[in-house]
Amino acid sequence: MTALNLPALDRSALDWDAAFSPQARRLSSSAIREILKITQSQDMISFAGGLPAPELFPLREVREAANTVLDRYGPAALQYSSTEGHLPLREWLSARAGIDAANVQIMTGSQQTLDLVGKLLIGEGDAVLVEAPTYLGALQSFNPYGPKYVQMAADDEGIDVDALEGLLERQRAKLLYAVPNFQNPTGRTLSLERRRRLLELTARHGVIVLEDDPYGALRFSGEALPSLYELSLKMFGGPEHSHVIYSGSFSKVLVPGLRDAWVQAASPLIGKLVQAKQGADLHTPTFNQMIVAELVETVMPAQIERVRAVYGERARHMMAQMDAHFPAGVTHTSPQGGMFLWVTLPQGLDTAALLKRAVERGVAFVPGAPFFALGGGHNTLRLSFSSATLEQIERGIAALGQSIREALA
Ligand code: PMP
Prior knowledge:
Elements: H1 16-19, H2 22-25, H3 31-38, E1 45-46, H4 59-73, H5 87-97, E2 104-107, H6 109-121, E3 127-131, H7 136-142, E4 148-152, E5 154-155, E6 158-159, H8 161-170, E7 175-178, H9 192-204, E8 208-212, H10 228-236, E9 244-249, E10 261-264, H11 267-281, H12 286-298, H13 300-325, E11 331-332, E12 340-344, H14 351-360, E13 363-364, E14 366-367, E15 380-384, H15 390-408
Parallel strand pairs: 1-13, 3-4, 3-7, 7-8, 8-9
Antiparallel strand pairs: 2-10, 5-6, 9-10, 11-12, 12-15, 14-15
Helix pairs in contact: 4-12, 6-7, 6-11, 8-9, 13-15
Bound molecules: 4'-deoxy-4'-aminopyridoxal-5'-phosphate.
4'-deoxy-4'-aminopyridoxal-5'-phosphate binds next to helix 6.
């Protein structure tokens, strides 16, 4: 081999920290990921992660669909494909929503939607309205674009629209980000009346709404509500007049690992999103989209029923155990669907410190503070009920109750 005559490299020369762009410097790793590392030990009961229950995944059906897709499409199933997405899947989604396929874009997980919509709409210093608390992953996606967060007050019915009205009179905002159904992290749902008011207010003030709805189909009690997007179609006269960007996902209603999701929005937004997605990943994996298209009619409805029934049972069990084991002064939300609930401890208690005690007793949760864009929430925590068995819920909630009593003593 000929020796390359390269100058000796000074290994200490490259200062990566100095090399990172201003956007990269605003990235931080998720507080949850760090906690998940502690909870990976075998006998830890973890209510921390937000994982769908793996024992419910339709393995056999996915395997069969993969074979069907390969037989039907041959090499095309493994070829590059259009940025907009697999047409049969877009058509299925658009028919269901009563809109045109031109208003539907397939995405690589709704996490990609948060990133790319952030890229398209958030300029340095733009005011972005977020719930307090809000989905941590959205903050991670938006942060590099330099938003100025404004927190919206909320109660058991979700965003407080009276307070929002006052807020919008005092200040301009570009974007409102909300998870109206079974919110991550609180499990709360925005009431119908508030949905209408929120749409009127944001339309009047020219604020674009990003509706993140990965859990909407997972309702286990109460009445189904129309999405903000559906309501906006009726209130404002069709998809081209809606100021709502709807973000849907197959992660929680089918499987998360295929990374298939979609956006419904007015065509100018979709057009720009196509350009952003070309630069990000060209398209969502062809094969995965074809598999999902194969399953939406045949497997997804029954899958949703199973998931709803199991999560409902787990949520009710967790709430009953909390009511039995948690001391007075500790409150929790009562979600009607989704995967999470939210616990508030007496003021002054710090759930980051509580986590250490709880982990010693073999149970983990996520402290609430990281879910607040502007700080606060040190006495709150998030529990996930989706992937624990009833027996684990019993032992885990009893242990958490003990840890809370100890911390209060
Ligand atoms: N939005 C919310 C509110 C979520 O909870 C999640 C997943 N934890 C996502 C978006 C991202 O989901 P996915 O990328 O799997 O569609």
